[in-house]
Structures are given as structure tokens and as C-alpha cells.
Design a protein that fits this description.
Elements: H1 11-27, H2 37-51, H3 57-81
Length: 82
């Protein structure tokens, strides 16, 4: 989805929706990726870089995995408080 841009607008949001649907299905939680300020800029930069031939698609994957880890830690901390 990031690479083919099938829609006039909201390609990034659709990509994140699909990503979160897959994460929900297979690991049981979602990540908030590229939603605010500096993080959004970093996400857009990595998404653009991953489309470029010879780019570094692994960096976008790394960002997703890092955000998933942060989300999992937050969930774990909330569960410990209960």
C-alpha cells in the first residue's frame, strides 16, 4: 500500500489500518504509528525511503517492531497496575 498509492488521499492511513488488522489478528494488539509530530515526520521519511529502488525497506519494519515493543510494554505496565 505504501508503494502503490492506489488512492488519491489516505494511503498512509489505509496502510496503517491494514498493518494493525494484521497485528490484531496474529498478536492481539495494535500500534499507533506515525500519528503525531516528529514521529509522523520520521514515519513519512521512512515510508518514502522504503519505496525508492535501492532504498532501505528494513528501516520501516524496524520502526514498526520498535513501536510494537513500546505498545506491549505499555499494555504490560497497565496490566500490572490492575
Amino acid at each position: 500500500m505504501v508503494n502503490i498509492h492506489p488512492f488519491r488521499d489516505a494511503n498512509g492511513r489505509m496502510c496503517r489500518l491494514i498493518l494493525n488488522a494484521i497485528l490484531m489478528r496474529y498478536v492481539g494488539f495494535v500500534v499507533d504509528l506515525g500519528e503525531k509530530g516528529v514521529e509522523r515526520d520520521a514515519y513519512l521519511e521512512l515510508a518514502t525511503e522504503s519505496r525508492i529502488v535501492g532504498g532501505f525497506p528494513g528501516y520501516l519494519s524496524k520502526m514498526v517492531v520498535e513501536k510494537a515493543g513500546e505498545t506491549l510494554k505499555r499494555l504490560n505496565n497497565r496490566l500490572k497496575k490492575r
